[in-house]
Amino acid sequence: MSGKEKRAQERIAELSAELKKKEGGGLAEYVKLKAAYADLEHGKQSAEEEIKILRKSVADLKNQASSRLKCEVESQKNLDDCKFQCHQWSLKLEEKNRECLASEVKLKDLTSSNNFVVYELNEYKKAADVLKERISQLEEDLKDIFETEKQAQQKIIHLCEELKKAGEDTKVWKEICEEMKKESEAYKCKRGDLCLNLEENKRKSGNYDVIYERETVVQQSITQFEETRILERENPDLIKTYTSGSDYLQSEVSHKDEENKDNSHMAVTGVSSVTMMCSTLINVESEKNIPIEIELDGIIDISDSEDELPPSERRFNRPLPGQRCDENWSSLKEDFPLSSTRKRKWVSATGSSEQGIEEDIIMKKFNAHKDENPKRLCSRIPNASFGGQHFEGETLDHLQTSGSLHEKVGNTFMGDTENVLEDVRSNGESENFGAHMVKGDLHLDDNQIKLIQGNQSNWKFVADMLSSFEEDPELSMKAVCALCRQQTLQEKSEQDPLGYNAKRGFGAFYVIRGTEIAAFLMDGDQEDGLKKSIEELNLWDLKALEECKMLARIHSNQLFTIYKAKEDPFFLPSSAN
């Protein structure tokens, strides 16, 4: 109960007590009290109503307080959750910041690599332009070679025609020889008369010197005629063949009259030797299709001269009797130009100064073989006569001791070619061998090259290794494995400054693909050799084998260095394995 109810009850009790006391007090008081009582009752009812309202409000307040308490608890939980989430987001923000920094570093690396790639692309474009220029130059050189070959063929045809004409002139020369024999016999008869009448003619005409010169000419003619007859008996074939120089000799006969009649039989011998050289040239060129000069012993003469005399201006000069053998041989080569030789063309692969040195090495070795033969040959032609002069030594028929001259020339040519090729192969490596002779200078086919090289189990230079890659595709697979192992060593050396520092691995553009193929071929074990076959590689990827060949060709220099240094025991030629 509230305080108002208590006070109302107390008041009612007091009034009832007073009423009882004053019952006898008068009716007026009774009425007053009754009215007051009615007021009190009315106040009581109003108080009760207020109490009810207050109770309702208290209940509402309690409900609100409980609901607020629940909201406060829930808000506290939400606050804790928000704090936890805020902490997590802060951690994630830090991670994102770190990733952002890493991405910035990667972006810088990518920009630098992009700049490097752009630089390399520009370099490749420049190299491509240089290669285009070289290709155009090579095409022009090839055209020049074709033109020189055509000219050589035309000269060969011209020589054949000259030989036919010389065959027709044989009868004329035989008649001249018969006349010269008769005249020589007449000169023998007159020799005694000239000796007896020498002093008398001197006193009469005062021309003793002229007569003495004529007597000397007659003496030389007689001795030379005897030597010519000896040559005819020993080798009659020498008088039956003639060369294109007959026209010039006939012109000499018309200009010098009797003097040339005395000496023309010796010119026949010189013409015969020249004819032999011409026929040898034509036989060798027709069989091997080699437009070169062959000088009696299979020597290949490569001409660099741009100004060559026409056939009409060529002359058969005579060497002096007292000259040394080497001088006579040099004059012989100069005096008998048979045909124009093709110009030497060299193709440069890199354009560096090293390739000029390689060219000098090759030509020195080639000329070393070439210079050995003239002395040897000259010592075998001591008694050959050319146009009235005399070489000391044997006759030309000694050149044909075994087989024909044509066979001798061909054998010497092939032997010298093999020696030169072997010397060049043993002293040069293909990665720096930038100068090569254009195909057609030696005209050796693949079978002849294989015969010369033989079955070799070692790679002497990069070209041998590349040909082995073509013959045995499995070698290119081993090459990729070797490059991968060297790549691993290279990556280790970047951490160890005192370790392996040679650049033997893949190039920058082939690292990913090369490592992937090598991992499959070695089955993930880099310490072992090749574990997959060609069939398994084709099943894994059809393009992988061609990619192996491409990688082996691109990295041929590194692979050859690895092979020479014996850095990889699994990368060896097939026969060595």
From TrEMBL:
Residues 5-64, 121-155 form a coiled coil. Keywords: Coiled coil. PANTHER family: BNAA03G12380D PROTEIN, OS01G0221300 PROTEIN. It comes from the Eukaryota. This is Uncharacterized protein. It comes from Papaver somniferum.
